[in-house]
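Reviewers of the previous submission asked for a worked example of the structure-prediction workflow described in the proposal, so we include one complete record here. The input consisted solely of the amino acid sequence. No template or homolog information was supplied to the procedure at any stage.
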Amino acid sequence: MPLRSPPPLVFGQMAISVSFYCNLHCEHCYVPEQYRARYRRRLEPSQLTMKEITNFVDLLVERYSLKKVIVTGGEPLLKIVFPRSAALMSHAANKRGIHVQLNTGGLGQIPIRDVASIFDDREKLTFQFNFDAASAEALGRFRTKRGAHKSALRQMAEAINCGALVQARMIANRHNIREALDAYRILSSIGVGSFRIMPIFGAGIVIDDENARLGAAEEIKEILAALTAMAAQTSTRLELPNPILVDTAEPRPNVRFTECNCCLASGYLSTNGDLYPCSYAIGDPDSHKFVVGNVRYPGFDLETAWRRTLKKYQSSSGCAHCPMQIALLRKIESRAFACA
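From that input alone, the workflow returned the following structure tokens.
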């Protein structure tokens, strides 16, 4: 019997970090606070050129059917970073015709209209805003920056008015999960397209933060049930990644259940060219173990390296043993919390 050829690699999306510069100090950041200065000193001299980044995008589009680029950081809308962000967005959307998602903390320094003006077709642009608390006080504390709440809401409204798709993401931890319902109401009231709530990852500074990690599964189940009920009454779609603790067999109007596709159809390109199967891997103390390879190294073979990594993750039962979730699992009684 002839051997079957492996299925072709297809990248639905690739997150690309244009810089590690950031004006926030979020509680859930995967880059530990004490390492930020060291990361910048180490990575800036080896930062990819925009030509190297766009060449990598071209490779993914032409050989691996790339459909979306996620522009991330750091904060892509800082003045010092934006020329790189703009170059990547323009190349991906206008030259390659693929969708662009811009991730921002909502305190960027570049006017939203200037971002939207880059696009020949604004339907190719999605903004993802981090919105981790309903109240101004709580969000400011979470971001360690005053004005985060007002700025995020203003920028989301501006993005909607520019004709871009707008989604908001909430990283749920022990301190903010009770604000999820109010956050959903606020976002719905301004016309945000979708609201995604996901549990805090066991990576970066969260590894040693016992007070941040989620507690009982029953509490989270209660919140998810209330959110799914609210979704039927609003036009803002609710997105729930694993762990999903509500009955998915029942009709859930305006709710989308999602699964992690790290390593399978998505990846993360770091500022210095290191390629990872997941963006949260860089927050692990042993992050070097998860590097697929570096895209600028002579002889780097993406397909061979990626298939080797894929085989490794599949052999360990995938997300059930995801190394980024080990810290989270210490405090959760269900293994359903192994992946988000």
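The CA atoms of residues 273 and 296 lie 6 Å apart. We consider this example representative of the routine output the project will generate in years two and three.
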